[in-house]
Every structure is written in structure tokens, then in C-alpha cells.
Amino acid sequence: MNSPYSPPTRRVFPYARRKLAGPVLSPWRGGRGEASGRPPVRLTATLCRAEDEFAELAEEWDGLRARNRSATPFLSHAWLASWWRAYGRRGRLRVVLVRENGRLVAAAPLMLVHRPLPALVTLGGQISDYQDVLLDDSCPRAADALARALYAASRTAVVDLREVRPGGAAERLYAAWPGVRHRLTDSVCLELPGVPMDEMLQRLAPASAKRTRRKLRRIDELGIEAHDVTGDRVPESVSTMLRLHEHQWRGRGVTPEHVRPRFGAHLVGAVEQLVASGDAAVTEYRLGGRVAACDVALVSADLVCGYLYGADPALRDQRVDIATMLLRHDAHFASATGRGTLSLLRGTEPYKLRWQPVTAANRRYLLARPQLAPALELLAAKAAAREAAARLVRERGAAARVRTLLDRAAALRPRT
């Protein structure tokens, strides 16, 4: 099926792969070696700077991701490669790879930026709710080897790992880092257990649960049906979702990036591959034979992430609670597939908070060589100042809302 979101023209970068010098390239001497009859363990590290070389890593990359229990769907090769084609800049790719006797055991998908200071940042950018590195859980030397390789590759840049989910592989990298380091709190995500809707309703107060059951009955009475989308229908369905998303938010502050062609090209291309590999699910909600809503969920071993949806504004006129409709389907999907966590991703909107979710704050890890300690502290101070400013805005906004409510209450108070 043709999609209005055509992928960007492929840019072919000059082939560039560089071995990283340092102890990581030496045979590992700490094991039993020849006494056990096994060959010596040799760890090697390389720096991938070419798009075509990164593209060829797909099978090896996803094999490593499968051996990293904490890996989120935003670390899939399909997601990262598609993101790079849409958002990457020529000559900036820096992917650090570590192999043990030829097998990939660690990887850091990075790119070089120069503002405000030279830094290596993770691929995926602001449209990825989780970011991280990959470490083979069965290789105890992977974290230390990646730390040494990344130390060699970073040179005069600070390594800035943002939006790391609690328990992510970057925690082990941070612990093994041989230079200076700093840990910060990043965005807040909300999580629910991967249980059916009947159990989810038990999280609500009785009156709220009763209202929600009434909303679910309304959805069923209208005859809205959920249909899984697979195969060559995925691109068209994702394009429809993006169109509905723009329509529903028109005039109400749509996220600007969500309506840009590069985002559409990335999402259509990535999700088509992710659905084929079982790492994403696309669902259409049909009413009277037409698509009234559509959503994309990204999945990993123990995680379902409700990423983006679009809905016809006419559904609200029919008193359809769209968020509840989507949550029921995603909760059933998580439960049926044995995935223990349903992530509502970033943001603390009221429609999420009503379900009493668990708050999980992402982490930001800053890593650098000792001589770059001033640059690292500058980035940390800038992040702290930004958070303080955001907190002040939130507090002032809350205070203003309280004053408004008090003024309204005073206006309604009977005069004597």
C-alpha cells in the first residue's frame, strides 16, 4: 500500500569503522583459560560511523536486544535505523560495538552533537520515551568492556544518556565508568500492571469504577470493534492514524513534531518492520465499517507501551471515552501475551493518573573523561536549572488554579 509519508532519500555515508584502542582489545586473562580447555576470551571494540554498516547490523543487533532483559522497544534496530534515516545528520553517527570472540555483547547507539557542548547522545531523540544502551545479560564483562570502549570513543565529548528507564543497562555502564560521572532525574513515566480490565477497574474508587463500566458498555453498545492490522496494510493504517491524530488535536495544541513529514516517514517505516517482527501492534477501531480510531503500541519482552493514537473527533460527540477504550484493549493485549507492565509513557495527564499508576522516573547519566569534569558539571547545572524553572512554572500554575477556584467559590457564596 502506498503511504503519503515517503521515507527520506537514503544517504550513503563513506564507510567508516575504527577499532578502539585500549585494554578492551586485549585477551581477557581473568578466566580459567587453557586449564579449562576453553579458548581464551577476547573482547574487541569498534566504532561504527557509516549508515550502511549500521543497517547491516539488524540481525546481530536484535539478537543482542533479545539477550538484554531490560531493553525497551525503542532499542530495536528497526526503530533506531528508521530514526537515523529521518533525523540523523551526515557524519554524526557514532555506534560503539563490543564483541566477545566475535559475538556482539554490548552496543551504544550514539550520535555526535556540538551544542551547547560536544556530546555523544543516544539515537531516538525526543520522540523516544525510553533510551539506553544494550548489554548481554549472559556476559559479565560486557558493562566494563563497553565502559572502556566508550571512554576511548568519547574523546573530548561528554556522553549524555537520557530517558533511561529504571533498571536499564545504562545503570551497569554508569557503575563501571572509569572517569567522572553524574546522575540526574529525567522525565516521569507512568506504569500499570499488565492485567485484564476487570482487574484494572479494582484500582479505581467504587464510584469511578462504576462510571468507567458505564463508559465501556457505551462503547460496546455502539458496536465499536477492534481489529489487529498486519502485513502490507500496516503503512496505510499508520498513515490513517497520523491523519486522525492531527485532526483530533487541530486547534488544541498538537505536538508540532507529530505533524511533520519526517516523523510520519519514520513511524510508517519503523512500525511496518516492528509489526512484522512482533515488536509492535497496530489496532484499528471500526464503527460502521469505517476506521474511527487507530493506535500503535510498541512491545518488548515484559513491556507494552501505548505510543500514539488518532481518533475521529466525532467519537467524543457520541460520548465515547477514547482513553478508556484504548486502555481496555492494551491491558487485554498485555495480559494475553504475558507482559507484566503496561507503560503509559511520559506525562502525568489526569486521564492517566485516575488509574493510580506507579510513577517511574527515568534517569539521565552524564559520563566523561576526568579532564572534561567542568563540561560535565556545566551540563548537570543547566539540567538542574531547567528542572527548577519547570517546577516553578508548575507551582505557579497550581497556585493560580487554586486562586481561581477560591474566587469562584467566593462568588457563589450567599450574601448576608
From TrEMBL:
Question: Which residues does the UniProt record annotate as the domain BioF2-like acetyltransferase?
Answer: 210-352
**Name of the protein in its database record:** GNAT family N-acetyltransferase
Its lineage reads: Bacteria, Bacillati, Actinomycetota, Actinomycetes, Kitasatosporales
* UniProt entry tagged with the keyword Transferase: yes
GO molecular function annotation:
transferase activity
Q: Which InterPro entries match?
A: Acyl_CoA_acyltransferase (IPR016181), BioF2-like_GNAT_dom (IPR038740)
Naturally occurring in which organism (per UniProt): Streptomyces diacarni
- Which keywords fit this entry according to its UniProt record? Transferase
Domain of life of the native organism = Bacteria
